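Researcher: We're reviewing a set of sequences before deciding which ones to prioritize for further study. For each one, I'd like a predicted 3D structure that I can look through quickly. This is TMM43 protein. If possible, include the structure in token form so it fits the rest of the review sheet.
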Amino acid sequence: QFSDTGSRKEHVKITSESKPGFLERLSETSGGMLMGLVTFLLSFYLLFTNEGRALRTAKSLDEGLSLVIPLDSIHSVSQQNEGRLVHLAGALSTSKPLFDPSYGLSIQAVKLKRHVEMYQWVEYEDSKEYEENGEIKKETKYSYNTEWKSEVVNSRNFDREIGHKNPSAMAVESFTAVSPNVQVGSFVLSKGLVDKIDNFKQLSLSNLEDPHADVTRGGDYFYHSENPRRPEVGDLRVSFFYAGLSGDDPHLGSADKVTVIARQRGDQLVPYHTKSGDVLQILYPGDLSVEEVFQKEHESNTMKTWALRAAGWLSMFVGISLMTRIFYTLVDWFPIVRDLVNIGLKAFAVCVATSLSLLTISIGWLFYRPLWALLIGLLSVVPIVIAKSRVPPKKQQ
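Model: Here's the predicted structure for TMM43 protein, in token form for your review sheet.
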């Protein structure tokens, strides 16, 4: 079946295959068990190394806070601070503006990004499986829609390429230009600090003229299209973004201010290596005090730590679920038993993953804070105790 609703097209494809036998399902489960074992082992590595990283980062931040020196002036370089960790805040400045001669555009900023999108066909799938006459049938609805995409969509992978063919490449490429020399006052920022300037904002094109006869400006886009209001597959639109305004602009305002904490080396700001083994080179937009900067860094470290803990727990849960899947396969011919076993296996995976995750975290803390390690180790027993308490006692004979 095929239908066309405006630019959106769709068709349905039905495939069928014989229902897999017991030995075939058992073989698939065995492969899943091996994958589960790998995932299970990787979760230990992720959880253990994450705790060491988090504590090391926290110690490095505390060390940095105790050593950092706020500069009195950003317009003079004092030799007394050579090699020391310094704090300064000021407006960004660059030696030359960034250009895109193809579109007649220039801006005094740290970064200028050209973002190119092409109007293309995009395929979407919606599948459902059902059993009929002893066979497993899969009904897939393929729908096609035209959209602006920044990456080339390979239409050769479509279920039906005829009528939905995309160009193999874009005539105009995206790119990001970065200023070779970025300063705050008299201090030159290292590449690592410049990389942190990534708060991109879209550049308004309302003050620019159409750069070529085959290019039309519409809003904040340049269109390579005969009719931007009714684009065709293969048409392009180009937008621009900037980060770190480094000069006063009549349309964009004054230069952006940043706060930097790094090691002073001559007139350069470079990474500072702490005794804990971490590197400090911090940059935030705005004018922040030393305490505000380190508070933000501690908050970022905490968020990253909990995100990796959640990822580690999830990896362990998935690994245990895959390794115990074989019990589900052995009873999947009996619907009621199968559902009960499935619930039991999920509960087992939750309890074991939680206990082993807490135990692994406690081992990670053992070398740094033994008392906290002991407390977390005791918490790891709680899920097992709760699960055991819910098991009904045996009836007395």
